[in-house]
Every structure is written in C-alpha cells, then in structure tokens.
C-alpha cells in the first residue's frame, strides 16, 4: 500500500502550477508553509472524519489545472433563478468571465485582482489557519475583489454563479476578496452548477471585511458533481456594531469540506451561521465552523441541520471561543440531525471555550429518526406515508431555509430542497 506523506499531494498540485507570476510574496510564503506542513494527514484531529488527502491521492495523478469550459448566454440564463434582477457575476471553472456577466457598477466596484493591488489579500484567511488556504494562495489563477463603499445600500443582491465542468479532472481555485465599508449593506447569493458528472477538485477561499455598522448577508447553494472533491475556506472580520449572516445549503458532492470562521472583533457586532445538508448516496459533507468572540457585548447564533439517507456521511464541528475580554457575550450553537438509513452516519462535536465569566452561552446536538407518532398522526388524517414523511422533513429543514434573506433565492432553494425530499428520500 502506498503511504501518504504529509506533503506528497501538495507537491503534486504545486507541480501542476509552475508559472504563476502574480502575488509572488503570498505564493512564496504559502509554498514554504506547505513544504513544512503539507496537507492534512488522514489521522490529523481537524480532518480525522474527512480524509481529503487520501481521497486526492486516489485521483490527483489524472488531474490538471482548470481552463474555462464552453459557456454561452443561453446556458447561463437557464441557471438564473426566477425573480432575480441584480448584478450577475459568472465564474467558469473558477475564472471570472466578464462577457457573460452583468455588472452595473452602481454603488460598488468590482475588479479582477492585479499584482499591484494585492493589498489585504490573505490577511483575513491566513496561510497558517488551514493548509488548503495555503494551497489556494499558491495556485489560484484569477481572483476578484468587490468593494462596497461607505454608506452605500445595495438594494438588489449580487449573484455569484459558478459553473464547474471537468473533461477528465480539473483543479479549480476560485478566490474572492470582499470589503464592505462603514454603514453599508449588501446581499450576496452564490450557486455552484456542475455541467457534467466528471471529477474535479475545487479549493476556494473567500475573505470578507465587514466594517463598522455594516450589514452583510451571504447565502450559498452547493450542488456539486457527485464526483467532486471540494474545500471551501470562508472567513470574515466583523467590526463594531456590524452584522454578518451566512446561510449554506449543501446538496451533493463526493467529499465536501466547508470551513467557516467569524471573527467578532469589537463590541456590538453580531455573527449568524445557518446551514442545511441534505445528503444521499455516498455524499460526504463536513461543516467546520469557528466563532471567535474577542470583545464585550457581541452576539453569535448558529444552527446547522442535516438529513442523511443511504450511505451518506455528515460531520459537524462547531467551535465558539470567548476571550477573557469578551464579557457580556451571547453565543448560541445547535446541530440537529435526522438519519433515514441505518447506513447513514453523522459525527457531531459542538464546542465552547470560555475564558470570560459574565456570558450567556449554550450549545448542543441531537441525532435521531423521524417521529413515528407524528408520521402516524399525519397518515391518520389522509396523507400517504411518503407525503407525510416529506412534510415532516420539510418542516425540519424549514427553520434554516427561512434564514435566507432574499425572497426569490429562498424560493429557488426551497424548490430544490422540496424536489430532493420528494424524490430522493
């Protein structure tokens, strides 16, 4: 049996990206980090339930750097949900495509990152936080920057639509940097569309700076290829009196890892994290979340729910840190799961680390099956068993879906969830 060394896979991927000239400083530091640390070994604590390095070792020899696939406006418009009227930003195998996008430029700026504008890149999602951040730093080909100006209220959402298509195997490396200035407000919507069922490795990093009294809503729908290996590192800095709300709906993929970190850096700020994963087949989704309370009078709310069928596997690991100075903190965390098969598995680990003594914090998790009494009650009132089952599952999922702030996107995602609940379970 071949032994997986800590940096074998990283070396292979770095070797496929030898001529990337931009961002030399961040690339140099990230390569040095990877040469020392490598990608996570199979038994490392943070990745012990999600052996991405092992999975990559099985396929990476057949992969290569991603190139834009064939896309046209007709195909793009098929994936724009009904009722959407805002700006549309198209990414083709991780690379921004201006000719297919719709950008009005009202009240915010958008640009492809250039070398001389490296600026804050990598200062929120730091290289040493996760090896896959370092790997993205060293290999991303095209990054984009969105800047929402001070006091700007973006009335219509900004839709980031990612198309992934692999011919044999693609290494896709999207990179986003978003800065929202004082007193601004904006909603981002994100959807991933797989155009075929070929394998690919997507390694994405998103950094968001939420300035004083700014308000940001970010909703994501993940519908990856059944053969996709996906890592998403998403990190935010949240400042005084600002709010950030994340909603993540995960439906498919081979192995998906979502790392979401909220840094609450001042008093009066608020971070909200909501997630729903509906898994069947052999899909594996791992949600790792971190909330770091550093100052007094801040609040965080976290609710993740999972419905798992067949031989699927879910992982939830949520950490809340309350630093010594963070008195008067309110922090809530909950993870609830329903298993619909004896072969489905969930590993859940909510965690609290508190160094302050005047706080209100709670965490918990539940794992079980459908309520048989409720199922019987609905059947007794005329519903077929599958209808009753679907209704109960939708009621369970609805608490997360209602957190999606944009009405049209919420309706679009709800239809996707209903289709899954009605046909796949």
Radius of gyration: 21 Å
- What is the tally of helical segments? 8
What level of helicity do the residues show?
A: 10-25%
Low-confidence stretches: none
SSE-based structural type: alpha/beta
Domain tally: 2
Major sheet details: 11 strands, mixed
Spatial shape: globular
- SSE order in H/E notation? HHHEHEEEHEEEEEEEEEEEEEEEEEHHH
Question: What's the β-strand tally?
Answer: 21
User: What's the N-to-C terminus distance?
Assistant: 37 Å
Q: What is the residue-mean pLDDT, rounded to a whole number?
A: 91
Q: Per DSSP, what share of the residues sits in E-state strands of 2 or more residues?
A: 35-45%
Description of the molecule:
- This protein has 425 residues and is an alpha/beta fold.
- The chain folds into 2 domains: 259 residues, no CATH class; 55 residues, no CATH class.
- It is 21% helix and 39% strand.
- The strands form 2 sheets. Strands 1, 4, 5, 7, 8, 10, 12, 14, 16, 18 and 20 form an 11-stranded mixed β-sheet that branches. Strands 3-2-6-9-11-13-15-17-19-21 form a 10-stranded mixed β-sheet, with helices on one face.
- α2 packs across α5, α6 crosses α7 and α7 runs antiparallel to α8.
- The protein is globular, with a radius of gyration of 21 Å.
- The model has no long low-confidence stretch (mean pLDDT 91).
